[in-house]
Specification:
about 300 residues; alpha/beta; TIM Barrel; 8-stranded parallel beta sheet; two-stranded antiparallel ribbon; globular; EC 4.3.3.7; DapA; DapA-like
């Protein structure tokens, strides 16, 4: 069955924001974008969780959106993080992304203020109705403090511009409920759950580990699409420990930036309150990268 956000099936990568001397390093950022284009990645998602949007100023956030859209130049889709716990601010950022030429908007559920389900509905409804961009609802209650319940997402699916869900609840039951009741494109928000979620009908992943091994994540998604579950399982098992380290050793994107530094692709710099891996964690990560064949 065709889904509303089918154009975003496959691999999207939640790209890092490179820093150098506490400033955004646009030269390194350009190299990261070209790396994803060369790999055949379908879409990049800047200024999300992995892109450290909480520590960017509003002007920096807007400049990154504009820079990524301009650099991508329609050679790869761009779905920037534009969510906020203020509906007015989320709408403002969405319009910035739309004007910049983004292809969709990644809308994290409002965090900290813990809206009711009706509050979630009205928040996403207003943005969807006042923007022309396809909207991807990013549901990650482990960070936001509250789940957008399936019933709310089912209501939102009736809106024309709500086309996708980034599913990061960790619940196959929730994903299955949404998939059974809507024609939304569901994308995994947890790398290690990509195969399980695709097995019940999800169409791809917005990936962290794709910053390092995009071709391998594409191979996993392609294998599922071909119905070659044995090959997909091989990729899942190969990727599993790497995925677990990226999200399990410490808070995202701390392990990812450490890995990219080890691989010579980033300075590893972050802004407070994000701090580097402990020495033991770093040694564990280096062991995983070596075992995978990256070092």
């Amino acid at each position: 069955m065709s889904t509303k956000g089918e154009a975003f099936a496959g691999l999207s990568v939640a790209v890092v924001t490179p820093f150098k001397g506490d400033e955004v390093d646009y030269d390194a950022f350009r190299a990261q974008i070209e790396f994803q284009i060369d790999a055949g990645t379908n879409c990049i998602c800047p200024v999300g969780t992995t892109g450290e949007s909480p520590t960017l100023t509003h002007p920096e956030h807007e400049r990154v959106i504009n820079f990524v859209c301009e650099t991508a130049n329609k050679r790869i889709k761009v779905m920037p993080g534009v969510g906020s716990n203020s509906t007015a601010e989320a709408l403002r950022l969405t319009k910035v992304a739309e004007a910049a030429g983004a292809d969709a908007a990644l809308q994290v559920a409002p965090y900290y203020n813990k809206p009711t389900q009706e509050g979630f509905y009205q928040h996403f409804k207003r943005i969807a109705e006042e923007s022309g961009l396809p909207q991807c609802i990013y549901n990650i209650p482990g960070r936001t403090g509250k789940n957008v319940e399936p019933e709310t997402i089912i209501r939102l699916a009736e809106l024309q511009n709500v086309t996708m869900v980034k599913e990061a609840t960790g619940s196959l039951d929730q994903a299955s409920t949404i998939l059974g009741a809507t024609n939304l494109t569901v994308l995994s928000g947890d790398d290690s759950l990509t195969l399980p979620l695709m097995s019940v009908g999800a169409r791809g992943v917005i990936s962290v580990v794709g910053n390092i091994v995009p071709r391998d994540m594409i191979a996993l998604c392609d294998a599922v699409d071909r119905g070659d579950l044995a090959q997909a399982l091989q990729w899942h098992r190969k990727l599993f420990q790497l995925c677990r380290d990226m999200l399990g050793l410490s808070t995202n994107p701390i392990p990812l930036k450490a890995a990219m530094k080890m691989l010579g692709r980033d300075t590893g710099e972050m802004r407070l309150p994000m701090t580097p891996l402990e020495p033991g964690q770093e040694a564990s990560l280096r062991k995983t990268l070596t075992a995978y064949g990256l070092l």
